[in-house]
Structures are given as structure tokens and as C-alpha cells.
Amino acid sequence: GNSVTQMEGPVTLSEEAFLTINCTYTATGYPSLFWYVQYPGEGLQLLLKATKADDKGSNKGFEATYRKETTSFHLEKGSVQVSDSAVYFCALNINAGGTSYGKLTFGQGTILTVHP
Amino acid sequence: DAGVTQSPTHLIKTRGQHVTLRCSPISGHKSVSWYQQVLGQGPQFIFQYYEKEERGRGNFPDRFSARQFPNYSSELNVNALLLGDSALYLCASRSGQGPSEQYFGPGTRLTVT
After folding, report:
1. CB pair distance less than 8 Å for A4 and B42
2. Could you tell me which chain A residue has the CA closest to the CA of B88?
């Protein structure tokens, strides 16, 4: 089956530190990969995505590269801010056409806390 | 434009009771998916509906059911509630069946006592 594994948290950083959150996946088909962010008391927001191997998704200073050879999609940011404190989820769906796009498989989430 | 809305925000039920959760998708979106997020875990896929028909189901018991209405809003029903059903229930909508982004609502926090 399909699964996503994220590095365990929580991750605690000082402002302006470099961030890496590891994500690896297993998939029975050809996946698209996503990072979602969940701020306290809010729903999930799409942070970035990549739909094919070697694609780089980027948004708000965050980026992740789809690495098919290592089945990874690690999230990075060069300089985190206090406002980046949230829970980050790596996810995939399988590009099998039709209704497959409505089913996301998520990792367990990584809590990020950034201190001033 | 309004985003995905869900109601109620919170509710508390007793074991054995029934619950109905509601979701209104973004205007123009025809596909709705439901997810269960247990505290400390990632969301788990429950159902997907498109054009009022079930198009996908996750590994959940038959106590869970859903439907989609002509205006594309959706209900998730859970019968015979168990303590383990306590979770945040998320609804997400997409514009169609193709590879489009899912937009999530804020969720309904269900507590079963």
C-alpha cells in the first residue's frame, strides 16, 4: 500500500535557523507529493507540491524536491520565523486518474516550534 | 469567496450515540472528501464524493457513512459512537475529478465520552 513517514518531532529552533523536516514515502503507483501546514486551531493549508520526479515545489521560503531515487520529499527553509510554528504534514496521492486525486495519504505530522 | 465551512465546530457525544457532521464546499467545487485526524496523528481518508456519488472509501467500519447533496454540500454520519471515534473530522473540497488542489475546512472536533 501507500504510506508516508516523517521525522519525529517536535522540532524546536531559534528564529533564523535552518529547517529540515524529512519525509519518505512508499507508493504502489506514480505519486504526487505535498506538504501541508496546520496552524493552531485551523484546518490544513497546502504549502507546496510536486507532481513528478525532480520537480521542486516552493512557497513562502519553503522548498522540497521530489526525489524518486530515494523516495523522499524533504521540506527545507533557510531561515525560520516565529510565525512558522505549526504542524507540518507530508502527503501523497496516486496519479491513477479520476477519483484517485481525492484521496490523500498523510504522514503523522511534525510539530515545529520557533523561539525568538 | 468563502472557503470550506464545517459545522458544528465542536461537539460532545456519549458512547452509542449517533452524530452528523456537515460540510459546505467552496462554491463551484463538486468533489468532497472526509478525513479523520486523531490527536497526534495525520489525517486518515474516510470518503470521497463526486457529483453526489461515493467515489472512494477508506478503511473505516460501516458505522461511518456519508452523502452529498445536489448543492454539493455533504454530511458525514457516524453510528454507535465509540471512544476511539474522538477526533478532528476534516472536510476538503476540489473543483473536479482531475488533479486539482484540495482545500480543507477548519474541522469538527468530536469528543466521545
Report:
1. yes
2. A43
